[in-house]
Amino acid sequence: MKILIASSIEHDTLKRLQEEHEVICAFDAPPKLLCENIRDCDVLIFRSGVKITREVLQSAPGLQLIIRAGSGIDNIDIDYVREQEYQFVRIPEPGARAVAEMSFAFMLALSRCLFLADRMTKQGHWIKHDIEGYLLARKTLGIIGVGNIGSTVGQIGVGWGMNVIGCVEHPSQQRADELLAMGIHLMDFEEVVSRADYLSIHVPLKDSTRNLINSNTFSKMKPGVYLINLARGGVVDEQALLHAMTNGGPVRGAAIDVHSQEGEGKISPLADLPNVILTPHIGAMTIDTQREIGNRIIHTIQTFVPKSVEAKFIV
Ligand code: MLT
Fold first, then answer.
1. CA dihedral sign, ordered 198, 201, 202, 208
2. Over 90: is that where the pLDDT of 95 sits?
């Protein structure tokens, strides 16, 4: 098969695919370049960082299988994917634990001012008595989007002795019961926002979630709240967050892994704030996670049964 890989994937997986197939690598290429490279490909593999537009997909008349090596589908024209009935395979499960652990790494780092303490100690400043630290235990962890990732964050929070609350887009009694069995209390969005000491965001980016966390949302938050965004940059209005962290706003600290502008040379408007941790979209970037995603990519391709052209017309 001929495979276009539009984003960097785990090294051994790439090697195995190259041994067994014709592989074109165009990591993070702009749509115009993807259009040129995808022409006679059967399979497309991609992650975040590229834009898989309708034009890109239309440039490959023989394309049959699309593999999203992770979770988000905000960077592909999903309406066109459905229209064309491509076989579309997402691999969201392996990343959930990695993102959830990173949410905790952020909560701990923010609560204990670890980055500031590290910086000052290395400069010879002994700030033992100047640092304000907080326990996670007995605090309220609010989760916006208690799905695959959010519920994993919630279960770790329960284990840590936190009071865990969360909301979902389509609440139901069944979902509330399932979450309660994990120790997570389902509430509405406003309640989660106004009660949380730590607010961790885990919703996909789509029309209904763009700028979901905006100046109005910040105005309802508890003073001293910590905000963690491992979802997508567009879900939090960065200018509103900047405002909420300065001018006596409620946010004591924030940790942001995803940004409205991502990539080499892009600098967040939050970069100058001392109480912000910024990372380059590494929530799912553990060796274990990417190896597992790689194994699933190989399995998907090995077990893929191409539809014949006639079959596509008959369907
Ligand atoms: C995802 O949606 O799976 C994550 O953003 C990881 C990625 O694709 O880079």
1. positive
2. yes
